[in-house]
């Protein structure tokens, strides 16, 4: 019984992870950022990790969402914020120090960060 319970929990975890992975999209240019958020996905972006930049991401994603409003009026126009800097960084493509740029501000990207809307 104990074992069965563990198996069930593992199944749920695997499914939850799968759903999460399917909802995370790699976004490598700003033009794709808001449309990806609008499709109810989280975005993984090369990011500079600057607080100022996060504020700009929040502001731009809010404004862009509002300008998109006729497409889907029910879409929340909340700005996006950083959710985490994943331990397991995507490797395809990898962040190349000095070459990979933050998709928002163009500064050198440090790591991939997960961004999503806060509801
Ligand atoms: Zn930046």
Our Rg estimate from Cα atoms comes to: 17 Å
How widely separated are the two ends? 39 Å
Low-pLDDT ranges: none
Biggest sheet, spatial arrangement of strands: 1-2-4-3
What is the tally of helical segments? 3
Helix content: 25-40%
Mean pLDDT across every amino acid position: 86
Tell me how many strands there are: 4
Biggest sheet, open or closed, and with what strands and sense?
A: 4 strands, mixed
Architecture (CATH level 2) name:
2-Layer Sandwich
Give the helices and strands as they follow along the chain. Answer: HEHEHEE
Q: SS-based structural class?
A: alpha+beta
> Any idea what the shape is?
globular
- What's the CATH C level? Alpha Beta
CATH superfamily: C-terminal domain of ProRS
Domain Proline-tRNA ligase class II C-terminal: 30-119
Organism: Coemansia guatemalensis
Protein name: Proline-tRNA ligase class II C-terminal domain-containing protein
InterPro entries: Pro-tRNA-ligase_IIa_arc-type, Pro-tRNA_ligase_II_C, Pro-tRNA_synth_II
Chain-wise SSE layout:
Layout (H helix, E strand, L loop, with lengths): L1 H22 E3 L6 H6 L3 E6 L3 H17 L12 E5 L26 E7 L2
Parallel strand pairs: 1-2
Antiparallel strand pairs: 2-4, 3-4
């Amino acid at each position: 019984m104990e074992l069965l319970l563990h198996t069930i929990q593992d199944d749920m975890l695997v499914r939850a992870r799968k759903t999460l992975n399917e909802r995370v999209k790699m976004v490598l240019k700003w033009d794709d950022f808001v449309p990806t958020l609008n499709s109810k996905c989280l975005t993984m972006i090369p990011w500079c990790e600057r607080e100022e930049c996060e504020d700009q991401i929040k502001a731009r994603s809010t404004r862009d969402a509002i300008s998109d409003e006729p497409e889907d009026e029910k879409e929340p126009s909340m700005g996006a914020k950083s959710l985490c800097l994943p331990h397991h960084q995507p490797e395809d493509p990898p962040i190349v120090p000095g070459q990979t740029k933050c998709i928002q501000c163009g500064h050198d990207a440090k790591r991939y960060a997960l961004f999503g809307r806060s509801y």
